[in-house]
Amino acid sequence: MENAYVRIVLSLLAALCAGGLIGLERSRRGRQAGFREHTLVCLATCQLMLISIFDWHGTTLIAHAYDASAGRIIQGVMSGIGFLGAGGIIKEGFSVRGVTTAASIWITASIGILIGVGFYFPALVTTLLTLGTLTLLRRWEERLHRRLELKLHLRQQRDGALHEPAILSLVAVHGFTASSLSAYGAGDGRFLDYKAILTTVDETSSRRLIETLTNDPRFVEFGLSPLE
Q1: Among 37, 165, 216, 223, whose Cα sits 20 to 30 Å from the Cα of 89?
Q2: Which residues in 115-128 are b (16+ Cβ under 10 Å) and which e?
């Protein structure tokens, strides 16, 4: 009986530490899901897995071998965590935030499951690897030249409209390369619309292009959105 209670307490404390460490890193970065969220996720998954390890008999706890049917618990937990992680993903301007936090919530849940079934060593290794990924690899990732792909839509009056060479030159001045450029008439022939896919490695290029298009009276409408 004492061994059962000790193991439960140690498992929950280990889950608290593992989830808390990962959560602290997220909180330090100012992410939405931080210390408390990761700690609760890890604790919750751990205690759910403990259900498959211990039985309550009257006033005592009896430990038994791992029940393979607990796979259903794991499946349900990970499905639920998927919805929780998706709630932290938000679209902000031309970027999407929260994907890393969602991934860290997912791995935190799996660590809680490992601790719950008593796999302490792989849980420790996974925690260390997760912390290393979130800290060390982040610095390496920041040095990469990430491409930003945007969808461009331009609408002009047909009379005096800019054509393909001028459009390509305009976006090139702002640091973009264009592909899949197409043109078609709209508004019973009164307008000339252009659509293109723009690519750049400079995140400030979009702001400069927007300012140029806004101040140019030749463009009746324009749209610039991330390529999904």
Answers
A1: 223
A2: bbbbbeeebbebbe
Residue numbers of the domain that contains 13:
2-142
Query: Distances in Å between the alpha carbon of 205 and those of 144, 154, 167, 171, 172?
Result: 17, 17, 15, 9, 10
Rounded CA gap, 55 and 64, in Å? 8
For residue 186, name the pLDDT band (cuts at 50, 70, 90): confident
Please say whether the beta carbons of 153 and 195 come within 8 A.
yes
Token reading at 64:
């038994």
**Per-residue pLDDT tens over the stretch 22-75:** 887 776 665 656 677 788 778 777 877 776 777 665 555 666 665 666 667 667
CA distances from 5 to 53, 56, 57, 67, 124 (A): 12, 11, 13, 19, 21
Q: How far is CA 62 from CA 12, 16, 55, 100, in A?
A: 17, 23, 5, 39
Q: How far is CA 90 from CA 63, 83, 142, in A?
A: 43, 13, 20
Q: What is the pLDDT of residues 123-161, one digit of tens each?
A: 888 888 788 777 776 666 566 556 778 889 999 988 888
Q: How many domains does the chain have?
A: 2
Instruction: Determine the Cα–Cα distance for residues 205 and 163; give it in Å rounded to an integer.
Output: 21
CATH number at residue 202: 3.30.70.260
Q: What is the pTM of this model?
A: 0.51
Q: How far apart are CA 222 and CA 158, in angstroms?
A: 15
The neighbouring-strand residues paired with 60 are 57
At 21, which helix (H) or strand (E)?
helix 2-28
